[in-house]
Amino acid sequence: MLDIRVRFAPSPTGAPHVGNIRTALFDYLWARHTGGKFILRIEDTDQAREVENGLELILESLRYLGLQWDEGPDVGGAYGPYRQSERLPLYAEHAQQLIAKGAAYYCYCTPERLEQMREAQHARGESTRYDYRCRYLSPEERAAHERAGDPKVVRLAVPREGKTTLRDFIHGDLTIANENVDDQVLLKSDSFPTYHLAVVVDDHLMKISHVMRGDDWVPSFPKHVLVYQAFGWEIPLHGHVPMVTGADKKKLGKRHGSTSVTQFRDDGYLPEAMLNFLVRLGWSYDDKTELFTREQLIEYFTLDKIEHAPAIFDYGKLDWLNGYYIRQLSDDDLAARMLPFFERARLKADRATLRALAPLLKERIKKLTEAVAWSDFLFVDDVEYDPRSLIGKGMDAASALAALRAAQHVLEKYPAFDDEQKIEAELRAASDQLGLKPAPFFGTLRVAVTGKTVSPPLAGSLGLLGREKTLRRIARAVMVLESKQSGDRVTG
RNA sequence: GCCGCAUUCGUCUAGUGGACCAGGACGCCGCCCUCUCAAGGCGGAGACCAGGGGUUCGAAUCCCCUAUGCGGCACCA
Protein A461 CA to nucleic acid B41 C1', in Å? Predict the structure, then answer.
């Protein structure tokens, strides 16, 4: 039985994208499912595109989702280093071997020349590709370039005939005619490898058993297969996972909304919801199950259930899932997870209050960020609102005033608001006595106390707000209505 | 332009020749519950399985063609 070793190999060019991280999830699940190893390798071979905190963003994203890696740049492992920029000699050496085997050659073409070449090809309506100029250089010409010290790259010598096939465990056999494959650069003039050399060398050296990557890599598989064959290496199992797209079916990008994993974290999405959502983009277990715990995913995940076609990232369904997982949280847990969002909003929310608030918000919020807007009235001195909203539908200023005074009477009797059920019952009775339906009665009280027309259940909210603030706010609302009434009389 | 991949309700998907006049979930609509908002319960609309040819007693499922969409065509990954 072969040792399962799968790797996630991002390049540190920015915050990891949900599409990429979905692939990482598949990698992780496959490793855990099989008892294999999940390896993190950093493909930092493009110095120009690298971002300073790129590595940190990758690690953060993986940690947020709990995709723990077994080998990687920070934890090491038997096949390191795990940063390609630290493996340069390896690539140079292997490029050398390919040249010796006649599978690759030095190319002295300048970027300017290549640019002109492509322009000309484009003008002629041809597909752009290297024109083989340096592939067939005479020994003399080659020596001249060497003597002149011209910068050079190493290019793969792709056969001009035949075709190359890759057995893909998601798509089946993929085949591309060699005549359509470019003589790709393998080693750049700055002595860094390109992706095409580095992946093959590293996947082989790191004994990777399964290569999973996005569908957008399909067109370049022949280059990799050819390199494997030139070395005489066994080709790992490959699977090209379908793309994750926006609603317009185009590759997910900034214009589609949030796309980076860390952004979702900051927007208040739970890792368990993200995990569940991401895995269902391109993978399913059966015809009924939508909800999966991490443990279940590890148990159920198999490669044969991966979808072939691209999937649209449905933000609405993610919200539903997130709401579902929030409802499953214990009050303590929810409180702990909400805390940072209140801190970020500069509200002095203490753990105990949040813990008591949790059951009230649990079934009302879809994201942790929403907790703040629902409950900020608890953590400020006073609330602002449009006085007109004190008067509900079917009410007038007089009835609203009566409702508030009745509430005042009821609430003043209680030294503490701890018996919510009893308070609610009494408020209801008071409302009844005034001949008001509960809706307008509680509505007026709600605005007076929370400043909102929508809030968590009132009795619970009053309990959390406390007697002093509650009564103060009601008294203020009474004054507002009184002055409004007298004002009405004066002007009317 | 060339090459490649894909195509089941709006969306994510189940489906691998008969159990499918196509099942589940999100969303949507209605009802119930209800102090607001949710959550929850119940019910409903929604896919001639991209189109056209075959193969077969029988096709969403196999083959061919077409269409459409997407992806790739760098000394980027």
Answer: 26
Task: Identify the residue whose Cα has the smallest distance to the C1' of B25.
Answer: A290
Q: What is the distance in angstroms measured between the alpha-carbon CA of A158 and the sugar C1' of B62?
A: 36
Residues in chain A: 492
A151: the nucleotide nearest its CA (via C1') is B75
What is the token pair recorded at A208?
């990777």
Task: List the beta bridge partners of residue A185.
Answer: A155
Instruction: Report how far apart, in Å, the C-alpha atoms of A241 and of each of A91, A280, A348, A398 are.
Output: 27, 13, 46, 66
Percent pLDDT > 90 in chain A is: 90
User: Which nucleotides in chain B lie less than 7 Å from some protein C-beta?
Assistant: 1-8, 10-16, 23-27, 34-40, 69-77
Enumerate residue ranges in chain A where pLDDT < 70. Answer: 1, 485-492
- What is the per-residue pLDDT across A230-265, written as a single tens digit (0 to 9) for each? 999 999 999 999 999 999 999 887 778 888 999 999
In angstroms, the CA A409 to CA A403 distance is 10
Judged on CB neighbours under 10 Å (0-12, 13-18, 19+), A358 is buried
* CA of A11: nucleotide with nearest C1': B77
**Is A7 strand, coil or helix?**
strand
- Helices vs strands, H then E, count in chain A: 19, 11
Average pLDDT for chain A:
94
Q: CA–C1' span, A291 to B77, in Å?
A: 33
Confidence (pLDDT) at A122: 85
ipTM of this complex: 0.95
Catalytic residue status for A254: yes
| pTM of this structure | 0.94
Gap between the Cα atoms of A199 and A203, Å rounded: 6
The edge-to-edge listing of strands for the beta sheet with A153-156 is A104-107, A153-156, A185-187
How far apart CA A26 and CA A302 sit, in angstroms, is 9
Structural contact between residues A322 and A366, judged by C-beta atoms closer than 8 angstroms = yes
Catalytic residue among A254, A305, A348, A422: A254
CA of A219 to C1' of B74 (A): 14
**Nearest nucleotide, CA A49 to C1':** B76
